[in-house]
Amino acid sequence: MEPQKKLINSVDSCVDEALCGLVRASGGLSLLKGHRVVLRSDLDNLKGKVALLSGGGSGHEPAHGGYVGAGMLSAAVAGGVFASPPPASILAAIMSLHNAGASGVLLIVKNYTGDRLNFGLAAEQARNHGVAVDMVIVAEDCAFDRPSKAGRRGLCGTVFIHKLAGALAEEGSSLDQIVAKVTAVLKGIGTLGVSLSPCSVPGCLPSFDLPPGEMELGLGIHGEPGIKRSKVASADEVVKTMIDHMTNPDSQSYLPLKSGNSVVVCVNNLGALSCLELAVVTRAAVICLENHGLVVARVMSGSFMTSLEMAGVSLTLMLANEETLRLFDAKTRAPAWPNLSSVCVSGRSYITDPPALGTRPQDDTHSEGPLSPVMRRALERVCSSLLEKQEELNSLDRAAGDGDCGNTHAQAARAIQEWLQGHVVPGCPAKLLSVLAGLVQEKMGRSSGALYSLFLTAAAAHVTEGQSNAAAWASAMHAGTQAMRRYGGADPGDRTMLDALCPAVDELMKLTTAPPGGQMLILQAAVQKAASGAEATRDLTAKAGRASYIAAERLTLPDPGAVAVAAILRAVLESLEGQK
């Protein structure tokens, strides 16, 4: 079995190159030479204030380097992938902050043995250099009912501590004040993760094996095993299981939440969930928490502390009061902190009413006019013609598309027939064309529905009640065709319906100057041009629409869209010839 592919240059250089990428992209960050330490580039602004330092293994990006900036961390130290940073680099970071004039340095450390040892050693060394240092351990994992002696793991709740401590430091709070406040807040923070896949450290095999169709609850951010495996369930069920587990008083690591409490929730992508899945989980989390009687004050949704490419999500809940929210909402320049609203999530009206566009044209009541019978007969003939041609059009479409061209035209025809049974045909052609546009848009669907609807909508403006002579119909046809070309992007010669429509419309434009006696001849010629145009598409290479993705040598039949247009025009002509 081969290690999973990664888009990197080399296993050895990926951490340093990733840090360089972060810093090059962020004007407020710089790198400490010779160390994997990301610093604020405005260290002068730390004078007299408490500096915050965090860090840990790489592979959790954007943690921790992405949280460096005014209002959050002053610096972050990175280790190798999933490896604690070395004490020498931690000490170098502490001394850089001290030398910049910080009044003290607070280390924010996730509860892993390696991190505790290395940050602890650096803290002791810094004290020997006369630096005021303190350390807060984040251990907010809710997975285990009976945590081992190592205690609960530090997970995404660490990011909340970065934010709250950062806001306090920015305001000028002392080291002791910050430690006291965040230690109190930590009692009300809990995190639980679930994953659908393992992750793999660059150059290594996956960290554990998770069969397809299974998920693991309560795993750590380094691929450490969780508490339970089960079949993958729906997002709603998974979120309910997670929140029920986190708030279960039978567990020693549960989060004590009561109905009416305010919470901040972080929906954290562990690396490889799509944004769409994450949004579905976010909705489920908000609804589930509200169903527990909790007030959701703020929601963060995104990638905040990942585990390389693990397909999973963690939920972090934090009990919130007015002061916590004030600190949470305070501005920060850290590049990875999201641009959040400070409006309470629960209780907010989040649905906006659509504009009143009036009734649909097909629902309006119309009055008949002299043209109503003529237009009704033409429409009836068009519909029956399209229904007769349903299988022929499907068959032509199977060569170049998904074989449903006849079905979509038949759908439109049946919708029009149904409408004709229950409505009078308006005497105003523009109103009829608007009705037809509405019907095909709604009932035909697909690209062809949009194209026909565009044609009919653009044409309608040219045939109002007082202006519906032959010349007006010609300019309506021309306007409809131009709209199809403008929005559809196709031209004659691209093997589309336009190859039948455009020659016919060019012929129909002669109606603008023809004497009344010559109009029928022009109509007959236009229908003939449409038929010839459709037939000629046998020899054209498709340049637009779905057929343009098919090899040209496979397309030897005429284009079904062009054949349908020719059939529609012939049906109109036949209905008019039958009324002479």
From TrEMBL:
GO molecular function, one term: glycerone kinase activity
Keyword Kinase: yes
Catalytic activity as recorded in UniProt: FAD = riboflavin cyclic-4',5'-phosphate + AMP + H(+); dihydroxyacetone + ATP = dihydroxyacetone phosphate + ADP + H(+); D-glyceraldehyde + ATP = D-glyceraldehyde 3-phosphate + ADP + H(+)
Protein name (Swiss-Prot/TrEMBL): Triokinase/FMN cyclase
PANTHER family (UniProt xref): TRIOKINASE/FMN CYCLASE, TRIOKINASE_FMN CYCLASE
Any one biological process term the GO annotation gives: glycerol catabolic process
Pfam families per UniProt: Dak1, Dak2
Lineage: Eukaryota, Metazoa, Chordata, Craniata, Vertebrata
Catalytic site positions: 222 (tele-hemiaminal-histidine intermediate)
Keywords associated with the record: ATP-binding, Cobalt, Kinase, Nucleotide-binding, Transferase
Residues in DhaK domain copies: 10-337
Sequence positions that bind substrate: 57-60, 110, 115
Organism this protein belongs to: Seriola dumerili (Greater amberjack)
Quaternary structure note: Homodimer. Interacts with IFIH1 (via the CARD domains), the interaction is inhibited by viral infection.
Family: Belongs to the dihydroxyacetone kinase (DAK) family.
Pathway membership, UniProt: Polyol metabolism; glycerol fermentation; glycerone phosphate from glycerol (oxidative route): step 2/2
Span of domain DhaL: 373-574
Protein's job: Catalyzes both the phosphorylation of dihydroxyacetone and of glyceraldehyde, and the splitting of ribonucleoside diphosphate-X compounds among which FAD is the best substrate. Represses IFIH1-mediated cellular antiviral response.
Cofactor field: Co(2+)
GO cellular component terms listed in the entry, alphabetical order: cytosol
Kinase recorded as keyword: yes
